[in-house]
Design a protein that fits this description.
Structural class: mainly alpha
Order of helices and strands: HHHHHHHHHH
Shape: globular
Number of strands: 0
Helix content: over 70%
Distance between the termini: 24 Å
Number of domains: 1
Largest sheet: none
Number of helices: 10
Strand content: under 5%
Length: 248
Amino acid sequence: MSLWRLEMLRMVRTHRWALVVGVYALFGVLGPVTARYLNEIVANFAGEVTIIMPDPRPVDGVLQFVSNTTQLGLLAVVIVAASALAIDARSEVAAFLRTRVSHPAALLWPRYVVVTATAVAALVVGTAVAWVLTTVLIGVLPAGAMLVGTALGALYLAFAVAVLAAAGAVTRGMLPTVFAALAVLIVLPILGVLPPVQPWLPSHLVTAVVALVDGEPAREYLRAVGVTIGVTPLLLVLAARGLERREL
């Protein structure tokens, strides 16, 4: 059995794909519904206090979806990615697999591609659900902005999984890999509070779909796209070299 088939079967038969796709699909439903009925929800909890809120706009459905998936959706991706990319977490299994390949780095590529494809598929499913429900409940969304924004979000997920791969090659064990990757992915948005730095960060792509739907031009994300495309392969090279040099 090839490593590629092994990783695809591992993703399917362990139902890890269902965790990621399920989280994104769930928030694809909750995002538009929450945005549409937010006034009613707030009124139910406000009691006798009157709270006046503006009518929902189509962008609000996408905003709610992105706000939720930026946290819990990304966490699900990190956990699933760590389970695959912490290659040396179990020494016995790692030793066995290393004897089946000419170079340890060969174990990395199928795992990275399969996890990234799963994460991107989950994003596409969740976005499609949010798009349809927002159109039905609130209003029409611009197709071009939605497609470009989803592509930018997928590019960020490829970067995030590459961060996991690099963390897995530097640390040992699933939990250290998760914590190291989350530290990097959390620090980036914090750095984004600096206006000169924000347009260059991969994390700038996370909310691109919301800004594009709200009318922001796509050229505002070209710098973040360039940095993300440049850094992602470097992280994978770091991960590959880490696997080559590590001794079990």
